Amino acid sequence: MFVRASLYIRPFGLQKRRFASAASEFRIPVIDFSKFRAAKSDAEKKDTANEIVSAFKNSGFIYISNHGLPQETVSKVFQKSADFFKMPEETKARLAWEDPRANRGWVQSGRERVTQSADAAEILALREKAPDFKESMEIGRDWDSHWKNQWPEEADAPGFKQTMLDFFQTCHNLHTEIMRSIALGLDLSEDFFDRKIDKQCHNLRLLSYPPIKRSLIDGEGQARAGAHSDYGTLTLLFQDSVGGLEVLSPHTGEFIAATPIPKVISSTETITPARQSIAFFSNPNFDAEIACLPNCGKEAKYPAINTETYIVGRLAATYM
């Protein structure tokens, strides 16, 4: 599994992608999370916690191994996701994404344009020039009294709803554990973030990327999903064997392939194959304040902001 730290920001404006040479020293660290879970002392936990925080500081991204999610669980989610995207367009259209605060439902290809920019006019221009080549399904916490998930009928997608509900909870639990390790690595109490993330204001995103001519992706500003940073605390990203994710080295400004582990390549010279990924966007509680941590100095570099105000604002600018 690949974990992306939203604390790391990708610079905006790199219209032409630069790829790292084979000699590049930048590597995405692989963290064995079982050491944190099996630790018999606070000191042992702190060792892994320091490793995670150091990796985020230096690369902004990590691979998590031995994370406790059975492969059969992840495989089932991928299969149910694939089945969903195979449904007829008119069936999926009945579940269309409608509101940035809800952030739930099916998003047709070209509707979203992810970017580091937060300027609505600039994003509109980018979308018109180079829309994202992907479709997605957005799922939030299912018990929300106001914002409802858009579920397909059971007859259209057998087992889809329960599979995604179970996976949503599983990912939240893992996110909580990782945030506890981060708290220790930041010299905070292990439960520092617990009450800031317990309302599960997260977003489970299923992603389907159709096959596409390589020449289209190589065009200026073109991508299946443009260069961007995420909005919440952590993103847990699950890739299929095709891969395709690239991360920006904070040291060189070069894009590095985040190769799936293990990896199987299946591509041709002119066609980039279809692929799937699943992202769990972990967010703070929507009523939480995003502010400088208490042990990071007296003067904050950025002003505090409400979580809901920030995330909904970014979503409203990203979708049309």
What would you say this structure looks like, in words?
- InterPro entries: DIOX_N (IPR026992), IPNS-like_FE2OG_OXY (IPR044861), IPNS-like_sf (IPR027443).
- One of its GO terms (molecular function) is oxidoreductase activity.
- The chain has a single domain, classed as B-lactam Antibiotic, Isopenicillin N Synthase, Chain (Jelly Rolls).
- Helix 2 (42-58) crosses helix 6 (160-185) and helix 3 packs across helix 6 (160-185).
- It is an alpha+beta fold and 320 residues long.
- The chain is built from nine helices and 14 strands.
Structure described in brief:
Residues 217-265 form the Isopenicillin N synthase-like Fe(2+) 2OG dioxygenase domain. By secondary structure, the protein is an alpha+beta fold.
SSE order, one letter for each helix or strand: EEHHEHHEHEHHEEHEEEEEEEH
Shape: globular
Secondary structure category: alpha+beta
Taken together, the total number of domains comes to 1
In CATH terms, what is the architecture? Sandwich
Largest sheet descriptor: 8 strands, mixed
CATH domain class: Mainly Beta
Largest sheet, order of strands side by side?
2-3-1-8-12-6-5-4
User: Unreliable segments (pLDDT under 50, ≥5 consecutive)?
Assistant: 5-23, 264-271
Q: Which fold name is given in CATH as the topology? A: Jelly Rolls
- Helical residues, percent: 25-40%
Q: In total, how many beta strands?
A: 14
